[in-house]
Design goal:
The protein is mainly β. It is built from three helices and twelve strands, in the order E-E-H-E-E-E-H-E-H-E-E-E-E-E-E. It has a six-stranded antiparallel β-barrel with strand order 1-2-5-4-3-6.
Length: 164
C-alpha cells in the first residue's frame, strides 16, 4: 500500500515532509519500517520520529541526520504491506480507510467527500469537499457512523456551522 511521497527536507536535522500521507504520525510510528521506492532504486527505511504538522506530517528516519541526506529521499514513495498495519481496534478505522468516503448528514443529504483528516491536539478534523469545504470535528457528537464497506460516513454537523 502506498503511504505517501517524500517531499522537501524540513530544517537541518534530516526531517522530511510526507506529501499525500494516508496515515497520521501515530499510525506511521506503529508501522515503523517502510519500503522507499523511486525510479532509481529502493531501500528499507526505519522511522525514528513522526510528528503531525499542517498540512503534512514530518518524518525522521534512521541514518538520515542532515538536510543533505534527507534531500536524497525527495520524490521517493513510502510503501508498506497492508497486513503489516496494526489493527486500529474495534470501532476505529485507519485514516486511509476514511479518505474518499462520501459524507452525508443524518437525514441522508450529501455534504461531500472526505478529502483529508487533520490531526490536532484535541481531536482530528475531517476536511470534506462538496459544494463548499467543510471542516468538521471528528468526535462522537458529530461523526455518527462510518460504513467502510459502503464508503459512507454519517455526520451531524455542529449547530451553526452551516451559517459560517
Amino acid at each position: 500500500m502506498r503511504i505517501g511521497r517524500i517531499g522537501r527536507p524540513h530544517g537541518l536535522g534530516g526531517e522530511v515532509a510526507l506529501d499525500g500521507a494516508s496515515l497520521d504520525a501515530d499510525e506511521l510510528m506503529e508501522v515503523r519500517t517502510f519500503l522507499w521506492k523511486r525510479r532509481d532504486g529502493e531501500r528499507t527505511l526505519k522511522l525514528l520520529r513522526a510528528r503531525d504538522a499542517v498540512p503534512r506530517p514530518l518524518l525522521r528516519f534512521d541514518g538520515i541526520a542532515s538536510r543533505e541526506s534527507a534531500s536524497a529521499l525527495v520524490n521517493g514513495e513510502l510503501w508498506v504491506d497492508r497486513d503489516r498495519l496494526p489493527d486500529p481496534g474495534p470501532g476505529v478505522a485507519w485514516t486511509f480507510q476514511l479518505v474518499g468516503c462520501r459524507v452525508v448528514r443524518e437525514d441522508g443529504s450529501p455534504l461531500g467527500v472526505l478529502e483529508a483528516v487533520w490531526s490536532t491536539g484535541a481531536h482530528p478534523i475531517y476536511v470534506v469537499q462538496g459544494e463548499r469545504e467543510w471542516l468538521l470535528p471528528a468526535h462522537a457528537g458529530v461523526v455518527l457512523h462510518a460504513d467502510l464497506k459502503a464508503g459512507v460516513i454519517t455526520v451531524r454537523p455542529p449547530a451553526g456551522i452551516e451559517e459560517i
